[in-house]
Amino acid sequence: MGTLPERKDIPPWVKAPEDLKDPEVLQIQTQLLEAMFGPAGSRIPYIEQVSKVMLELKVLESSELTEIVVYGSYLYKLRAKWMLQSMAEWHRQRQERGMLKLEDAMKALELGPWMK
C-alpha cells in the first residue's frame, strides 16, 4: 500500500510524507466498529491523538469486515495496531458472552423451537 491516503486533514503529529508510507493494515468485523469507535466514529480523533497516528477505515465490499489503515511513525503505528486488535478481540468476546447468556436465558425459560 504505497499510495497516500485520500484524507485531507492530516493530524500535526503525522509527518508527511514519511509517516504516510507503508501503513499497518488490519481487518475487523464491521459490527464491532461502533463499540470500538463510538457512534459515527466519535472516538476516532481521540484515539488518533493519544496514539499519535492517523486512522482510515474502509468497509470492504461484499464482506463483513472493515479495513483499518494505520499511518504514523513505525513504533506508534505498531502500538496502535496492537491496541486496536486487542480492543476488537475484547469486544468480540464480550459480544459472544452476551449471546451465550441470552441462549442460556432462553433455555431457562424453556421456549419452544418456534420461538428461537
From TrEMBL:
Residues 11-95 form the KH-like RNA-binding domain. It comes from the Eukaryota. The keyword Signal does not apply. It is found in: Cytoplasm. Gene3D superfamilies: K Homology domain, type 1. CDD domains: FILIA_N_like. Keywords: Cytoplasm, Developmental protein, RNA-binding. InterPro entries: KH_dom_type_1_sf, MOEP19_KH-like. GO terms for cellular component: cytoplasm. It holds the Pfam family MOEP19. One of its GO terms (molecular function) is mRNA binding. The keyword RNA-binding applies. One of its GO terms (biological process) is regulation of gene expression. Belongs to the KHDC1 family. Involved in the maintenance of embryonic stem (ES) cell pluripotency. Dispensable for self-renewal of pluripotent ES cells and establishment of germ cells. Associates with specific target mRNAs. This is Embryonal stem cell-specific gene 1 protein.
